[in-house]
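Chapter summary example.
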Amino acid sequence: MNLPQIKIICKDITLDLTSYDALIFSSKNGVKAIENINRNWRKISSYAIGKPTAQKIKELGGNLVYTSTSSYGNSFAQELLPKLIGKKVLFLRAKKVLSSLEEILKKHGIDVNSQIVYETVCTKKRVLHVENEKSVFIFTSPSTAECFFRNNDWCKNYIAVCIGEVTARVMPSDISLHVSKTQTIQACIELAKTLIKQN
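The structure predicted for these 199 residues follows.
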């Protein structure tokens, strides 16, 4: 069952991309947003944080040149350092970011700017009906976790599965929590199925 906790609001802005040699995307939402802002992004070399983001770049006809082996912003920044030397770079990002990607790149002399192209907001509160007290909940981002706990009570018998360590860090400390070894929704679902069988 899908329980939407967030919605993405793309910024209604004008953005000149003519001076940039490279674009950094840390989520597929950034790709969706720039598609609505300036379709000339497709001509510029794109660097993606993971497979879902890379897939969205390819799907929309972008020029994907690198996909990170990590799904974490700080590790992604380290991978990008040798690839972005001498380039003018634009990081297309959310209003709220938890990584230090931009700061790491600047610290190492990369000419990078950032532009907020979308914002994540909580959906309206919904009444949650869960019949099984041993249900497993999958959290796919820090924002979904924060919005869920803002609007819902947590039963002590529930189990949480997080897509990665960054999401796990925003979870309450007193709950049963598991982190997927691979940062994909499908991997989270497989882990959830395993936990259900164990219980």
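To summarize the output: The longest strand covers residues 111-122.
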